[in-house]
Amino acid sequence: MTQSVGEHETESHANLVDDDEEGMRPLKLHFASSQYQKSLKLSGKCYIDTAIRNIQMILKKEEVEWFIEHPQFQHFFHIKNRKQKWMRMWLLVLRSAAVGKKYELWFIVNGVPIRYSLREFRLISGLYCHEYPPNHERLGGTTFMNKYFEEKMVTYADLEKQMSAMKSKLSEDRKKMAALYFLASILVGGRKSGEGASPVDSFFQTVVDDLDACLTFPCGWYAFENNLNDVSSFLEKCNGVVPTSWIFTSFPIPLELLAFEAIPSLRNHFRESVNGARPGCPRMCKMQYKRKGGTKAFSLNAVNVNLGNTKFSIDFEARTAQVEGPTIPAIGEPSNNADSGETHADLVEAPRAEALKAMEGRLMNIFQDAMKEHYKKYEYW
Length: 381
Known about the structure:
Layout: H1 11-17, E1 28-29, E2 41-44, H2 48-58, H3 61-68, H4 74-78, H5 86-94, E3 96-98, E4 105-109, E5 112-116, H6 118-125, H7 143-149, H8 156-165, H9 172-186, H10 202-207, H11 211-216, H12 219-238, E6 245-248, H13 253-262, H14 264-270, E7 271-273, H15 283-286, E8 287-289, H16 300-307, E9 322-324, E10 342-344, H17 353-376
């Protein structure tokens, strides 16, 4: 039974965090197992390497330190492998289960249900995922953007051009422009570039007018919501058939790394620990890709070979860490503030273990029913 929401937590955030307590509506698998070998051209709008390189090249040392010491942004500077390996994420999306959950994604891999929720996102990325501050849409303002762009539609290319033009100017405005460029380069990008390019995210354009707000704003929750929209809208358009291409506009690393955190055979084959990683860093900073030979080593076929067909046990202990920053509050409880120390970010909390176990059982039934339908086709051959 769902409790009432406390005064320190919005109703939407309560739903986002505790979606597993609602009644689940098992529907279907989005793709038949016959589709699991199909690849596609998967590209994204996350440019971590480019953003960090340009910021370090254009800004002065003291300005760069603002990013390196930023409680959320600092983790992007720690990542050892910043180029996406899309086929791990694609492996999961191919095995998506339609379960009627608004704030979660579920994948069934070799009969094992894997959840992707705000908690998993937080644990892997280290971005703040507490509730939005009151009236967060009004954070910042339009003064800064109007000064440089005069109320025109601003594209990612416009930001890059303006960043270069401010190369010699040490100012608070340059730091704001760099913060906007950083957010647009990594967390939420535009679907189109070039002629007819999409505008830079409107919230990013206003929030950077207040750099103090940028320190504590729950960028993780914002990015996670865009993750859900990216995947959900894609699955709806597919209608069970793998297309030829997909542009993923939001921050992909948590969903990409979820496969490794959940599936031991993939983690052991493709990933290794980072020596000297900080205790308070998230999973994306603590593991790196092993050196492999060329792109074929990370192809969908290579991933499927290492995945195999056997069931596996999810090692939850290996997926937990002491991650610095605000907690994700339980329903009806306030979060701690952004200046708190280390907090324990468990993927599955003890009070909800039974609910999660029941959900997994229902997901298993979905998988088994789907496989029965698949094999019926060959029953009389």
